[in-house]
Amino acid sequence: MLIFKLLAIIFLLFLFHSPIHAVYDPLSVPNNKYGIHVAELMDLPDAAALVNSNNGDWGYITLVIQDGDKNTGKWQEVFNTMRRLHLIPIIRLATHPEGDSWKIPQTEDAKRWVNFLDALNWPTENRYIILFNEPNHRKEWGNTINPEEYADIALFYAKALKEKSQDFFILPAGLDMSAISDGDALEGSHYVERMYKAQPELLSIIDGWTSHSYPNPGFSSSPYATGKGTIASFQWELKFLKDLGVTKNFPVFITETGWIQRATGNNLALAASGVWTDSRIAAITPFLLNYQGSPFDNFSWKKLNSREFHPQYSLYQKITKIKGEPNQRESFTLAKALFPNELVTNSTYTLESEITNTGQGILNSNDGYKTNIEGIPDGFTYFSDPLPLLEPSEKGLIRIHLKTPMEEGTYHLKTILIHGNQHSTMEEKDVTLIPPPTLVIETQVGWKKEGEAHQVQILVYNQKDELLHKFQDLTIKDGSVAISGLYNTVPGETYRIVVIIPYYLPRQTKVVLKNKKMEISMKRLLPLDLNNDGALNILDLPALLFTKPHEVFGRFF
């Protein structure tokens, strides 16, 4: 019985202390649903100016990655650019053309896809993945129409992605809901029904619904039209899923929609104030920002052979948007401890360490990032230097200026980075405040029997060679001198101690300060600095000629 209890405790500890990653509902946070479909990666700045306009931030971008384009370095830089521009990627997986159709995805390729996608540092926690495209068209699925096969393969890929990381947000292929069953295509509802009957689990594992809600017929129908095959097609599709018995509530990703050039008019604004106000919509990425040739030039928002855009670009910019706040995983590591184990009471410190951004966000004070120290009691004061601007994997210095109180004691301190509601712990430890150390220096002054000298200076330098203390008008007596009140020092760190007496060559040594009174020995002080410039050089010879012999002798003996 005892062993079962122990196992249960271990299981609960593992459950509650292990990090659990999982997708979140994008509608549960402030979400800028507006986006655009992009074919050319060089268009990302224009895309950001479009989808993040008019109060918007963190809009969506639909991109296609083909199976022959899995270059990690290239796509990591794309994601880095999207992070800087505050764009959320929706990645549609694609194979490659074989003849006049797209090759059917192979299950043996799933592992390569998963490893590639997982190797990238995504801009947000949710990693949006669309599993292929419009398979109810023969040419999109190896010149065959096979919803059962699509369901099997999509489920295989979805499971492989989820097993690798629960951050993958799985979306099914968008279907052409305007297609008719004519041998070249299968009507959309028939395709979904057969797919669902073949693999009901697929609709359980996916996280959202993909819709190609085009204004058909002819990509030019009214923005007020409703039903299957209109810009409100997603509403019909969701109802059809409920009628099939699917109880899951899906956020909707309209990854393709839009009018051909001659029919665009003011339809985008009318859609924005009409059907696109549906609260279930997570993203709308009209097709297509820029395409400079057939077959999609009639959908391109950018004019052919021009830097200018068609009117729908500026119309879309004018649509009121909101500031999206997608979840980003924040993580930072310190190269060394920021706080020493011990500090001295009533002292001031500049504590610093190299910090590495190991998360998804860009560390930027202007974006609301700030440091905080939890557990600081009354008597402590501190402030931080501006945080370095760090993209993921970059390093910089974090610096905190601290004043300790008069009281001794041990304090539990936690250094955190705050961004919005996220708190990232960088360091958590106990710090003990102790009285200032005392240092006793033993040395010989020439060969004097009494070992005495006056007008002694002792300088204390830290590891950065900054002068911390300058003790003056001290006396060495019986070969010994003490300095106390070594405030602003850190027990355990190395300090350079310099002893200066007029007409004697300076002596120095390095010492690791302890947390109490300690004694050190320094080499004999030699009275060879006859011109009192702190060094032994040729200028000491003229000084010797003008110094009374008994004075020189008195410095030696």
Question: What is the tally of helical segments?
Answer: 12
E-strand count: 25
What structural class should be given to the helix and strand makeup?
Answer: alpha/beta
Give the averaged pLDDT, no decimals. 92
**Regions with pLDDT < 50 over 5+ consecutive residues?**
1-19
Structure commentary:
By secondary structure, the chain is α/β, with parallel strands linked by helices. The chain contains twelve helices and 25 strands. It has helices at residues 2-17, 44-51, 72-85, 110-119, 147-164, 188-198, 202-205, 233-244, 267-273, 311-318, 540-545, 549-556; strands at residues 35-37, 59-66, 87-94, 97-98, 101-102, 127-131, 168-172, 209-212, 252-256, 281-284, 332-334, 342-344, 348-357, 370-374, 381-384, 395-403, 409-419, 422-434, 439-442, 453-461, 467-476, 480-483, 494-500, 507-512, 518-521. The strands form seven sheets. A five-stranded parallel beta sheet has the order 1-2-3-6-7, with helices on one face. The protein has a four-stranded antiparallel beta sheet with strand order 11-13-16-15, with no helix packed on it. The longest helix has 18 residues, at 147-164. The protein is elongated and about 120 Å long. It starts with a helix and ends with a helix. Mean pLDDT is 92; it is low at 1-19.
